[in-house]
Q: What sequence folds into this?
């Protein structure tokens, strides 16, 4: 997607416990009527929607406030089920800044957004990296994944660029949503790697907590 093609107003899916990063693809099961409407409208236009975290669960009757940074996704796969759900795949394109919410007659929320701090997300340059280097960078993360029962196909990561790998692992990691939001907001790949290391340092005890089977 080119900079000139980025929409300034986007429908958003404020899904709690879910973050998408640029250059990652995730499946979504759409069943709420308002989001069925949103996907229908998106498929008729540029096939994009914004994923953004609500700051907290709203009390009944209130609309939750949103985080400042989210990620624009493009629908790359679409299937309608027999029970009128939509199964889609959404690919992260570029992060955006939430400028303001727009009043519309639609059932879903629409934001006016800005991308200028995140144009580097559109960069498709591949970074050469040896798997041994990747393993070194993520040795503690790998330990945490395994300790928590997460299965990662590390060999498959060899085929990806460094930014695709970092983003995929950040999204799939057993970190808290607050920690993942910090990773999403990290300005560039190097800062995201450093933030991962900082977060991992708080999990050190958990990673190396030796347990003995009695």
A:
């Amino acid at each position: 997607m080119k900079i000139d093609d980025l929409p300034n107003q986007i429908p958003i899916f404020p899904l709690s416990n879910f973050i998408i990063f640029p250059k990652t693809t995730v499946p979504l099961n759409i069943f709420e009527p308002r989001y069925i409407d949103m996907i229908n409208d998106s498929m008729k236009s540029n096939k994009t929607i914004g994923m953004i975290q609500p700051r907290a669960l709203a009390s009944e009757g209130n609309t939750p406030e949103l985080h400042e940074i989210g990620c624009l996704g493009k629908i790359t796969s679409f299937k309608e089920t027999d029970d009128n759900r939509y199964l889609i795949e959404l690919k992260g394109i570029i992060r955006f800044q939430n400028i303001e919410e727009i009043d519309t007659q639609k059932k879903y929320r629409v934001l006016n957004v800005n991308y200028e701090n995140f144009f580097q997300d559109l960069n498709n340059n591949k970074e050469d990296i040896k798997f041994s280097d990747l393993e070194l960078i993520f040795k503690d993360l790998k330990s945490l994944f395994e300790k928590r029962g997460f299965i990662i196909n590390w060999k498959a990561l060899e085929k990806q660029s460094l930014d695709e790998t970092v983003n995929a692992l950040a999204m799939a990691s057993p970190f808290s949503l607050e920690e993942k939001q910090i990773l999403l907001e990290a300005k560039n790949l190097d800062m995201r790697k450093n933030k991962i290391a900082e977060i991992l340092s708080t999990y050190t005890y958990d990673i190396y907590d030796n347990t003995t089977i009695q």
